[in-house]
Amino acid sequence: MTPQSVVARRSVSPVLRWAGGKRWLVPRISELLPALRPTEYLEPFIGGASVYLAFTWPSPVLGDVNEELIATYRSLARDPETIRTRLAALPVSAAVYSEVRDTPCSSDCDRAVRLLYLNRCSYGGIYRTNRQGTFNVPYSGDRSLGPLTDTDALRRVGEAMNNATLGARDFEHTLRGTKPGAVVYCDPAYTLPEEEGHFRRYSPSAFSWSDQLRLAEIAHTLATEEACVLISNSADPRVASLFRGALVLSFERRAFFPRARGTRLHEALYVLADRNTLRRIRRRLNA
Ligand SMILES: C[S@@+](CC[C@H](N)C(=O)[O-])C[C@H]1O[C@@H](n2cnc3c(N)ncnc32)[C@H](O)[C@@H]1O
């Protein structure tokens, strides 16, 4: 039998600002960990990687449908120093921003430099493309590249990514082959059924209500196969009904994104697992 690993905290911070990033959830996930003994870790919606980077997970398998993002992590794993040097040579200005955005990339390293620069200097740090797949977030003008270039932040993320299997693919593909004993953390975009009517998949990262249904079905199946599946999602009752039988941790937070700043967000972490694992988690949370 594969020995079960103890998951430890590590202080590696994300280098990308990512919409829906879950740094705030790390302390709560940390509380659950003593109840879990994962044999492997899968995170199919990796985004800015807050949860992956915060812990030393065994045999990590990471995925995201965003190819630029996965190319960036692959390149950071191979050669963070070249990326750091190239970023340090780029002034932060609207003109350079447009040039970086419009210059075609011919390697993963080019793509990493481009994504890190645009992510750092764009308005709100969001990743958005138009129908032609062109990045179309405006320049923000209020950032420096210092946190990436004056520190060892890129190297530390590169080391963490070097230990992982990375794939630019749909979550269903990443989760194929999940083994009993795995911990699976899923953080999709939060979509509600009413959004389906005017849903258009302009961006590869868009997530429809049917994607939510597909994810819920896979999550239930994995839990019956002895994986422990954690899903961050809206606490909306229609979303909650997709995860019947889950242990639900609820959170109320204030939105910080520009269009809804200050409004209350009701979010949840749904935990699907076998009865013994759920019992261990409950005991841990009540301790
Ligand atoms: C809310 S973000 C994840 C944020 C991440 N947990 C963090 O802390 O930064 C959701 C991610 O799902 C990705 N995504 C959207 N649809 C997907 C799909 N069908 N399969 C895999 N990834 C997808 C997006 O590209 C995005 O990076």
Keywords:
287 residues; 37% helix; 7-stranded mixed sheet; binds S-adenosylmethionine; 7 strands; 12 helices; alpha/beta; Adenine-specific Methyltransferase, domain 2; Rossmann fold; globular
The low-pLDDT segments are: none
Q: Would you tell me the overall average pLDDT?
A: 91
Quickly give the structural class: alpha/beta
CATH topology of the largest domain: Rossmann fold
Into which percent range does the helicity of residues fall? 25-40%
Give an overview in words:
This protein has 287 residues and is of the alpha/beta class. It contains twelve helices and seven strands. It has a seven-stranded mixed sheet with strand order 3-2-1-4-5-7-6, with helices on both faces. α3 crosses α6. The radius of gyration is 19 Å and the shape is globular. The protein starts with 25 loop residues before the first helix and ends with a helix. The model has no long low-confidence stretch (mean pLDDT 91). Bound molecules: S-adenosylmethionine. The site of S-adenosylmethionine has 23 residues, from α2 and β2.
